[in-house]
Amino acid sequence: MNLPNKLTLTRVFMIPFFIFFMLYDGFSWGKYAACGLFVIASITDALDGYIARKYHLITNFGKFMDPLADKLLVCSALICFVAKGPEYLPAWAAIIIVAREFIISGFRLVASDNGIVIAASYWGKVKTVCQMLMSILLILHLNHPAYHIVEQIFIYLSVALTIISLVDYLVKNKAVLKEQK
């Protein structure tokens, strides 16, 4: 197994620990551990793709697992935020973000069946960075009015970029959905 795939699996194995520290209130430092794990997992996301492309280590396993690991990390964080209460993340925002992930995954599956590979778009990458920053802010959830305003800005920005990136994918790849005879 090559290094990018090991990094992807490391990200997957970090998720249960992130969830534990995010949801268990028994440690005063738990949210900092959760934040550290989330940041490290996010870095492995960028690093595994960079290494795979630079050193031509792209594998079918990596093509399958990397996006799955990303979705597991983001969706786990969103579910934790909703579980913590609406003061963290309103359920409607989590639903929009998770729905987009399901739609794009299904869309990529249909494209793959037709021999088409849909690469990540500019909007998709910007959306991911914004969601990662939003998640870090929400994990830390500092008790200060200005901080809560910044959190809200990132929530609305993440939802807007989620919708923009979805529309961008669908418009650019609408031919994938056309029935072939």
Folded structure, characterized:
- The relative contact order is 0.12.
- The radius of gyration is 17 Å and the shape is globular.
- The chain has six helices and no strands.
- 78% of the residues lie in helices and 0% in strands.
- The mean pLDDT is 92.
- It has helices at residues 3-23, 30-54, 60-84, 91-113, 122-140, 145-172.
- The chain is mainly alpha-helical.
Give the topology.
Layout: H1 3-23, H2 30-54, H3 60-84, H4 91-113, H5 122-140, H6 145-172
Helix pairs in contact: 1-2, 1-3, 2-3, 2-5, 3-4, 3-5, 4-6, 5-6
Provide the descriptors you would attach to this structure in a database record:
single chain; mainly alpha; 0% strand; globular
Query: What is the radius of gyration computed over CA atoms, rounded to a whole number of angstroms?
Result: 17 Å
Class inferred from helices and paired strands: mainly alpha
What's the end-to-end separation, in Å?
A: 40 Å
- Could you report the average pLDDT, rounded to the nearest whole number? 92
Range of strand content: under 5%
Would you summarize the structure shown here?
With 181 residues, the chain is mainly alpha-helical. It has helices spanning 3-23, 30-54, 60-84, 91-113, 122-140, 145-172.
